[in-house]
């Protein structure tokens, strides 16, 4: 090709590109990155990932890092905070979004700051603040001191959010309406116009005015110069769920299981091991329903260290076996102190009490300053010194009671959630009432069991038997004949059997038909039928014996 033609083609191409550049391009959707003013991911540092380099600095206390919703998160110790130097971009205009993941350690009666823009000499109030106020209620504060401004000390609060759980808090403003979101749900909206004031004060994260501090965890703080849509908030929330479903999406599970097989360990993967409190009364391991059980003397109890896995708001079940040794006295099976919505720190998030003639389930709803509620289930007769299987399930709008695997009562309640707690789980005491008796197979679930599941749990126990040779001899037993019984126990956990040499009791329902000695020798008295009952620990087996 000739050189002149090559230059001609190049010239034409350049002219076409120039022409296209002047064509109308239509409305282009702004990218999230371009609209992002600040993004602190807290992945081991306080760097701004928005590209604006508005990096933070911890100027008080100590901030540490651990696993969060999206990578790592920042842990605020209640005296620490992050400071970002003032810049015009942090003076939010008539369209913005503040969004962050948060986890609150404890409930506070006072103001809890998440994000706060400091006032200056020209403005006596903060232009904006994302906060929580008066026991778990998040909100947004906006201020413009101009005459007649609708943003003169404007604030909007929304529904309370419990402690000890991750949540996404988002506030948006588009110049005409303020919105608050909890996770991906719109919880409050209010029509208002105006522009928050501009100040030369710095931006603070986790602190307000040098006296109020946030204690907990924070992840992926974002500030945008536009209002995110509801769909974008939903996308942001779902990103968190996909990144760390363990923190945000509950999986139904058995979260604590105490077998009391010569220890107080939790048999689940949640490792909610119990520890006997030093100085308390004695706890002995004795033969019970499934192998060993724990026999509590007066004043003895266990404690399980506070853990999120034993907070329940989406449902709850507790099952187990108990044999109380006193009458007409409340005896604590378990109690979770420190309800977030209680009037006092001694209010339980949930508790279960056993009497000889009834059971009591106590719970604190997640409602501000709410006293504990009680649900009861009575028995027809005293069960003192008798083993029974108990079960109670809570589904938010119904409490169901079970005795020995059978549904015996159900109570409809207003739909609520059980308050989270920040105290240890106590087994055998609530600090006032102590269990005097024996317990076995104590289980806690983070969801309500079905009728069939409770029944299966009650039926899952060891079994007793006498030998095949004994059965053959008893079939032909005649007056004045004798049979020396050999009893065995089959353990459901291992599937193995063991011949019992001690701790077995034998009983005849009619000693005029046959007698049975303490060491298991049956002596036939006269013709007829009577029942033989073998007992070991908390289980029994009954045979009908016919004397020829």
How would you describe this structure to a colleague?
By secondary structure, the chain is mainly beta. Helix content is 11%, strand content 41%. It is built from six helices and 41 strands. The strands form eight sheets. Strands 1, 3, 4, 6, 11, 12, 13 and 17 form an eight-stranded antiparallel β-sheet that branches. Strands 18, 20, 21, 23, 28, 29, 30 and 32 form an eight-stranded antiparallel β-sheet that branches.
What is the topological layout?
Layout: H1 3-21, H2 32-35, E1 36-40, E2 56-60, E3 63-67, E4 72-77, E5 81-84, E6 96-104, E7 112-117, E8 128-133, E9 137-142, E10 154-157, E11 166-173, E12 177-182, E13 185-191, E14 203-205, E15 207-208, E16 212-213, E17 215-224, H3 230-243, H4 245-248, E18 254-258, E19 274-276, E20 283-287, E21 292-296, E22 302-304, E23 316-324, E24 331-337, E25 348-354, E26 358-363, E27 373-378, E28 388-394, E29 398-403, E30 406-412, E31 425-427, E32 437-445, H5 451-459, E33 463-466, H6 468-475, E34 482-484, E35 487-490, E36 497-499, E37 504-508, E38 514-516, E39 521-524, E40 528-536, E41 539-547
